[in-house]
Design goal:
Elements: E1 10-12, H1 17-24, E2 33-40, E3 46-50, H2 62-73, E4 81-86, E5 89-91, E6 94-96, E7 99-102, H3 111-123, E8 128-130, E9 133-136, E10 177-183, E11 192-196, E12 203-206, E13 209-211, E14 222-225, E15 231-235, E16 237-239, E17 245-250, H4 254-268, E18 272-273, E19 277-279, E20 287-293, H5 297-306, H6 310-325, H7 330-343, H8 367-376, H9 383-388, H10 398-401, E21 417-424, E22 427-434, E23 440-447, H11 452-468
Parallel strand pairs: 6-8, 7-9, 8-18, 9-19, 12-15, 13-16
Antiparallel strand pairs: 1-3, 2-3, 2-23, 4-7, 4-20, 5-6, 10-11, 10-17, 14-15, 21-22, 22-23
């Protein structure tokens, strides 16, 4: 992409600067690179700058940009909509025509929503469909994965395919995934496997073995979907009386999975079907029979940011592209994000932006630019929604602490740090706000290291200095 990492600089103000410099010279950072930017939250003045103008990979700190752009470009009260449409008419209990399930990006649809749609169809008199059942995901383009997604991530929940028509297994809203729970059976036999929601869309190849204790057997339990298919292979061992293991596995082709669930709901509720399953766009002249709105964006931000949901980031990216440029694509969404950044006084030409979630190793952002953005956001009328979505250090409730709930507990940083975490192989980041008497805005990024645990310790040490000494 032609983005170069610049020479590091050190700028210091405040009585904690020498302590920060000492940590940033620590032997644990040998061979790695760190960037730290600290500003006054009241004035925006740069108080500490160490490699702050160096482009670094932000990992999930990219979600700070995506979330802020979505609030500005879509609005905090924005809703996703899913529609049930027809190109036919209802006569004497029979829908003569096709039935369309039209997705518009909602990542919060659940299995029970399809049952509700079908119940509503029955309530308006539909008992039989003389036509096909059609799934429509054309609101977004057909590029389901970002350009830099690696194969080994495609089966993971954080690598789920992005579709305008998708479904989540529970209220974490990991759209496009299925929960696979494995528990011990009889010793020497295959363990028990339960899918949620229950479905025949995936095939299970159960090669695992139940053992008497966790020490026996050849290795740990592995649950993985085979590339390019919907066969989930389970291998390794599990203890007979040990805790069950649950993995969220991304399915191949989420819209096809939705079609299976919706078709099954129609059959379960005894609506007679004479046609077949199809995948096509909803005709312009089709009538909307039913619709469902998602929660507003201000509420969706909680699972998105607190739990660092990659799928939500990419859906929001594509939605911004669709709404503002008429194209539900990664490329269009990134153009909208760049427009937003320019409006906030940042120069996206000095960044490499490849996706909305930060899963790409090719994203490059300067810590000083990210801290500048975080400062400017405080004047937005939607800032409280943004701020409330950030993980809170040491807060034990999952919907509050999020990815920071186990960090910095019983320290000066507990309930004081409101920040987004980020993690990839060789990358860790933490950026956000310090809510003290003299509040701060900060961005910390570290790249090219080998020991993630040690880098998180360094991040935490930096936070303790900033919260313990203040200005």
């Amino acid at each position: 992409m032609g983005c170069k990492k610049g020479k590091g600089t050190l700028q210091q103000k405040g009585k904690w600067s020498s302590s920060l410099h000492r940590i940033l010279s620590d032997h644990r950072l040998k061979g790695a690179i760190a960037g730290v930017s600290v500003r006054s939250a009241k004035t925006g003045d740069l108080l500490f700058n160490y490699n702050g103008d160096t482009r670094l990979t932000p990992a999930s700190n990219m979600k700070l940009i995506t979330g802020a752009a979505a609030l500005e470009m879509l609005g905090s009260d924005y809703h996703f909509t899913t529609e049930v449409c027809t190109d036919g008419e209802i006569h004497d209990g029979t829908l003569i025509g096709n039935l369309y399930l039209r997705g518009k990006g909602d990542p919060t649809l659940l299995r029970e929503d399809f049952d509700h749609f079908v119940s509503e169809l029955k309530s308006i008199g539909v008992k039989r469909i003389e036509g096909n059942v059609v799934a429509d995901e054309s609101w977004f383009d057909d590029q389901h994965l970002s350009e830099d997604m690696i194969w080994s991530d495609e089966h993971e929940y954080y690598g789920a395919q992005i579709s305008a028509l998708t479904v989540s297994p529970n209220t974490d809203y990991d759209a496009g995934t299925i929960m696979v729970t494995v528990s011990g059976g009889e010793i020497g036999s295959a363990p028990e496997v339960v899918l949620h929601p229950k479905t025949n869309y995936v095939d299970i190849d159960n090669l695992a073995t139940t053992v008497s204790s966790e020490e026996e057997g050849e290795g740990e339990l592995v649950i993985k979907r085979n590339h390019g298919s919907n066969t989930i292979t389970i291998s390794g061992t599990i203890s007979q009386f040990g805790d069950p293991k649950t993995n969220w596995i991304a399915v191949w082709n989420p819209s096809s999975y939705v079609m299976d669930l919706f078709f099954e709901s129609l059959q379960t509720h005894h609506i007679t079907l004479s046609g077949k399953k199809e995948f096509a766009s909803t005709p312009i002249h089709a009538k909307t029979l039913l619709s469902k709105k998602s929660m507003p964006l201000s509420e969706l931000l909680i699972p998105f940011m607190k739990l660092s949901n990659n799928g939500h980031a990419e859906v929001l990216l594509k939605e911004m592209g669709r709404i503002h440029l008429g194209k539900g694509s990664f490329e269009a969404g990134l153009e909208v994000v760049k427009t937003f950044l320019r409006s906030e006084g940042l120069n996206p030409n000095n960044m490499c932006l490849r996706d909305g979630s930060g899963i790409s190793q090719m994203n490059l952002i300067q810590p000083n630019e990210l801290s500048k953005l975080l400062y400017t956001l405080q004047s937005k009328n939607w800032f409280l929604s943004f701020f409330d979505s950030l993980p809170v250090a040491g807060a034990q409730e999952r919907s509050v602490g999020g990815t920071l709930r186990e960090r910095l507990r019983q320290t000066s940083a507990e309930n004081v740090i409101f920040a987004k975490t980020g993690s990839l192989i060789g990358v860790t980041s933490l950026s956000g706000y310090i809510n003290t008497k003299k509040p701060l805005v900060f961005s910390v990024m570290m790249n090219n290291f080998l020991d993630e645990e040690e880098m998180e310790k360094i991040e935490d040490e930096i936070m303790l200095i900033l919260t313990g000494d203040g200005l």
